[in-house]
Design a protein that fits this description.
Layout (H helix, E strand, L loop, with lengths): L1 H26 L10 H10 L13
Length: 60
């Protein structure tokens, strides 16, 4: 019985662990982030390039 029941038990245990992991992930609260300050916005604008008009990744 161990040869047939062992793999089935491992499968059930793994499936149960997946269900618990997905439920915990869904129940987790997202991070509460504060809005950027004016100084942070200015620093970010210096570090990032201007608007490029969308996805312009060129294959040609």
């Amino acid at each position: 019985y161990l040869l047939w029941g062992g793999p089935a038990a491992f499968l059930l245990f793994g499936f149960g662990a997946l269900i618990i992991a997905f439920r915990r992930r869904r129940a987790a609260q997202p991070f509460d982030t504060a809005p950027l300050t004016d100084d942070e916005i200015q620093r970010l604008e210096k570090l990032t390039p201007g608007d490029q008009g969308g996805d312009q990744g060129g294959a040609s």
